[in-house]
Amino acid sequence: MNLQTIIDQYLNTLIVEKGLSKKTLESYRHDLTVFTLSFSPPKKVIADLQGFDLKDFITMQSKLGYHSRTLHRRLSTVKNFFLYLQRELLFTDKLLPVKPPKMMHQLPTVIRPEEMEALLNAPNLEDLHGLRDQAMMEVMYASGLRVSELIQLKKVDLNVHKATMRVLGKGQKTRIVPVGEYAIAQIDNYLTKRAFIDPKEKSPFLFINRYGKPLSRQFFFKRVKTYAKQVGIQVSISPHTLRHSFATHLLEQGASLRAVQEMLGHTHLSTTQIYTHVSEKRILSAFDLYSKRK
User: Fold this and answer.
1) Is there a contact between 249 and 113 (Cβ–Cβ < 8 Å)?
2) Which of 66, 157, 177, 253 is the most exposed place for a label (fewest CB within 10 A)?
3) In angstroms, how far is CA 48 from the centroid of its own chain?
4) pLDDT tens digits, 24-50
5) What is the pTM of this model?
6) By three-state DSSP, how is residue 203 classified?
């Protein structure tokens, strides 16, 4: 049986069973394609698969120098695919055990509060696009959204009275996040001017380009980089830096790790814990408290 056909069936099964996003499915498809093409000759039919293939694949990927996070993801993707084949009785060999590579955690980039303030004030507020960009950055920093969540926001997701937003996150999971009155005011300024210029606009999206379409991740990335350079921020940042800074600054102000986890939409608390490593003020405060108790 053709392996690519089986991969398509597997991904369709994930859509039904887990409701995975298009982006996640594309990632799975890419990893499975890399797997099939990593062998010589490439794996084309189920009969080509062997019980030691998964272990050989991860060994090859490791030697090519891929990051541990990529190796973990590809190990999980391919292993789950093999388990699916076994459930469907399409593959009967026993998989050789694979030891997961040691995870190397890279600390996220975070900018100082004063740098964040300068970044948020960088856009030209006499321009509609400047109003939009400021509102987008304010929302990211006020709520810790992912870029993909930000650009997919719709006007109906905004609750002005409660200063909250309904966000569709990873795995199609919905969460309600606080935005804050200031960010709400920035959004209102943008929408008011947008409606004044084009009162017949029909786009349901909150942030749009000149054609009424939602912005791309790449476009917003370039805008943030431009503003960072404009205000003299030395470190290389991206829109995700606003999310990292949001989490770190909250922890520095005493917010609980659990609360930050819920706002970020992390499934596991361990994912959120990385921000404790970049919060020097929190670490120093804990040390100071310890010293006073002695």
Assistant:
1) yes
2) 253
3) 35
4) 889 999 999 999 999 999 999 999 999
5) 0.64
6) coil
Domains and CATH numbers, the chain: 3-87 (1.10.150), 113-289 (1.10.443.10)
Pair 31, 73: CB distance under 8 Å:
yes
Q: State how far the Cα of 158 lies from the Cα of 139, in Å rounded to an integer.
A: 11
Buried b (16+ CB within 10 A) or exposed e, 134-170: bbbbbbbbbbbbbbebbbbbeeebbeeeebbbebbbe
Instruction: Kindly give, in sequence order, each residue whose CB lies less than 8 Å from that of residue 5, ignoring residues fewer than 6 positions away.
Output: none
What is the rounded CA–CA span in Å between residue 242 and residue 49? 44
End-to-end CA distance of the chain: 70
Cβ–Cβ contacts within 10 Å for residue 233, how many?
A: 20
Tokens of 38: 């990593």
Cβ(57)–Cβ(13) under 8 Å? Answer: no
Identify which has the larger pLDDT, 281 or 191: 191
Which of the 8 DSSP states describes residue 14?
A: H
Closest CA to 231 of 150, 132, 124: 124
Across 215-230, b (16+ Cβ under 10 Å) vs e yields: bebeebbebbeebbee
CB 246 within 8 A of CB 144: yes
Q: What is the mean pLDDT of residues 11-15?
A: 90
> Per DSSP, which regions of the chain are E strands?
158-159, 164-168, 174-178
Token pair for 153: 């926001």
> Annotated active-site positions, please?
146, 170, 240, 243, 266, 275
